[in-house]
Design goal:
The chain is mainly alpha-helical and 148 residues long. β2 (78-83) and β3 (86-94) form a beta hairpin. It contains six helices and three strands. A three-stranded antiparallel sheet has the order 1-3-2.
Length: 148
């Protein structure tokens, strides 16, 4: 079978991700937020963390995380303070402004997920989540084996 966009796992996953991000962006726009903010918001929901930890949780490069955090700080969504355990790093936390938006962010994510999952049976939705987690785990294992 020839590999093409209709059968390419990478292409289809990327396409679905872009479409989901666009729909989420539409839901978040009135909050002054973007999909790129969500990993940071969710990573910091339980409390402060280092930029490195947030980047690892979000699975993005440090440079990308730095740019995202800079924008979020400019917009009053996060604050930074020196890390008392490591003078070279800073701890990042959500501002009250960002914390107040969390329920609306979670509602937006639920709405987008529901609009997509409504197109599947409950069993298909559960199966999709199980399968995409397996794909993610396999890709993380490949990444980990290259770094070792």
């Amino acid at each position: 079978m020839a590999l093409n966009r209709e059968s390419s796992l990478g292409y289809l996953t990327n396409w679905a991700g872009r479409l989901l991000a666009r729909e989420l962006e539409r839901h978040l726009a009135h909050l002054g937020l973007a999909p790129a903010h969500m990993p940071v918001l969710f990573a910091l929901e339980a409390g402060e963390a280092s930029q490195k930890a947030i980047a690892e949780i979000a699975s993005v490069e440090q440079a990308t995380m730095t740019a995202t955090l800079n924008r979020m700080e400019r917009d009053g969504l996060i604050s930074r303070r020196p890390n008392p355990d490591d003078g070279r790093s800073q701890l990042v936390s959500l501002t009250p402004k960002a914390r107040n938006k969390l329920p609306q962010v979670e509602a937006a994510a639920r709405a987008v997920n529901a609009s997509v999952l409504d197109q599947l049976t409950p069993e298909e939705g559960e199966q999709y989540v199980v399968l995409i987690r397996k794909v993610i785990a396999a890709l993380q294992a490949l990444e980990g084996s290259r770094q070792a």
